[in-house]
Amino acid sequence: MTTFVFVHGHWHGGWAFDPVRQVLDARGHRTLAPDLPSDRPEAGAAANAAAVLAAMAESDDEAVLVGHSAGGLTIPIVATRRRVAQLIFVTALLPRPGQSANDQFEREPEIALPGFRWTERGDGLLDMPDQVALEYFFHDCPPAAARAAVARLRPQTERTLTEVTPLTVWPDTPRAAIVCAHDRILGPDWQARAARERLGVEPVILECGHSPALACPDDLADALERLAHR
User: Fold this and answer.
1) S-S: 21 plus which of 31, 44, 80, 129, CB 3.0-4.6 Å?
2) In CATH, what number is assigned to the domain containing residue 94?
């Protein structure tokens, strides 16, 4: 039995992992998926990490942190503050000490694929247009599940994009990576290269888009089980 702690990305909540959690729970694992305070303008990566740590208060030290998308900016910070067994990055951004996410996008334009966009509200929060979410987040998900997911998206603080990461040094924690070959948001080639060059691992490739927990939960569960504690 493994405890998987899922950390969501921008605009999402813990609900985004419900399908894969159901699969893993049925297989005898324990799963957690806290909501991050990402709809608060003042909340950055440190606040996100604190929310994960609070949810893990009663977890053992063998928990596996799974960071999806921008959740990848959070899970290494958590691992600097308490012991965890492993970090698994799922089609995820990776923090670079001394840089913001926007710095990385500027220096490595291949990270972000063209077309994905959001709306600035002027209050420190970003809105995600429904049609963009359907086309880029959920294009290969079951239609009813995609529509339900769009309805649950929240405003997103821009601070996690503009702040320099509070991570000063990467934790000495085992790592793994899952790349989504049909991702329309983060370049699959960049994902694979970053896994090899920055994480030092050979990634697992899933034939799905940016939201494998909704699009292919069984395949994602299989990959997580294979990778856990490797």
Assistant:
1) 31
2) 3.40.50.1820
